[in-house]
Amino acid sequence: MNSTLLAFDLASHWHGFWRGDIGVWILDRGVRIGLLLIGGLLAARFINWIAQRVTRRIDAEYQESDQLVRSESAKHRQAVASVISWLAVALLFVMVAVQITDILAIPIGSLVAPAAVIGAALGFGAQRLVQDLLAGFFIITEKQYGFGDLVALNVGALAQPAEGTVEDVTLRVTRLRSSEGEMLTIPNGQIMKTVNLSKDWARAVIDIPVPTSADLNAVNDVLHEVAQKAIDDPQLHDLLLDAPQLMGVESIELDTVNLRMVARTLPGKQFEVGRRMRVLVIRALRVAGIVAPGEMAPPVVAAIPHPATTMDADKDAREQDK
Asked: What is the pTM of this model?
């Protein structure tokens, strides 16, 4: 009997709770606010899923094709997909916030004065953020670099440029993967200078030191032959856009003369081509009998005489003179 009365009392209190002010507010407004928040989160996840699907599809097209490097349009499409998803999520949450204020019946006119104060505060405190967003907008629209590009970015506070492969570009930051595997996150507003090392095509530069005693005419003949045969090399045939060119004498030092050879390559392949070209040049110079500067005169190691031995030798010489 007591348990029946207790259950009836709890049921009446529970029924009365939903008829009270808090219960009515939860049913009338709280549920709608909760549904808006849940729907916004689900929509944001869906937008991110679509963006990732688009980028994976673009990357799969490159992986399945016979292209050695990504095309400029593919790089730009991946960057644009990332930016559009970021903007869509931001606009989505702004719309959800506006809907929540409408449900709460907050008058927009009463928010004008606080919004002006907050806007002025943000204008002073968020200058860096606005600068990052504007810089990111121009990076994307001007196609300065995109996903997969090899870049060197001069950042204002750093003495050395940040070098690496672009893995993500948004309106606010650029993420690079360095050659050591480190992930560098750089705000776009702090980028002072952009050097794209894989835009349309690249150039491999090979400096070749030879001794001053070498016959430069013979050296030029050997290097011209290397340049003509490089286009047929199995490792270089698909990476070179045209045959390498010998530029001639680049500088003269005390015991060496530096010659320069350049080769136009596919974007981002200049380092691989440069390493292979150096191997071919060294091999050809050795076959031609042209030694490297360090091999011209082998070092001579002599023993330093002991002072006592020197004194005895001088004494013997004086006695023989007598």
From this structure: 0.56
**CATH of segment(s) 16-58+73-134:** 1.10.287
Q: The domain 143-196 is classified under which CATH number: 3.40.50.2000, 2.40.170.20, 2.30.30.60, 3.40.50.11290?
A: 2.30.30.60
What is the CATH code for 202-288?
Answer: 3.30.70.100
Residues 34 and 278: their CA atoms lie apart, in Å, by 66
pLDDT at 321: 54
Encode burial over 65-99: b for 16+ CB neighbours within 10 A, e otherwise: eeeebbbeebbbbbbbbbbebbebbeebeeebeee
Mean pLDDT confidence for 227-240: 87
Residue 107 DSSP one-character state: -
Where along the chain do its domains lie? Answer: 16-58+73-134, 143-196, 202-288
Q: How confident is the model at residue 160 (pLDDT cuts 50, 70, 90)?
A: confident
% the chain with pLDDT above 70? 70
Give the pLDDT mean for 163-181. 86
- Cα distance between residue 130 and residue 105, in whole Å: 31
Please state, in angstroms and as integers, the Cα–Cα distance from residue 112 to each residue in 95, 119, 267, following that order.
Answer: 18, 10, 52
Question: Element (H or E) spanning 232, and its range?
Answer: none
Task: Please compute Rg for the chain using Cα positions.
Answer: 36
Determine the pLDDT at residue 299.
Answer: 43
What's the rounded mean pLDDT across residues 30-45? 84
Concatenate the DSSP letters of all residues of 261-312 into one string.
EEEEESTT-HHHHHHHHHHHHHHHHHHTT---GGGSS-----PPPPHHHHHH
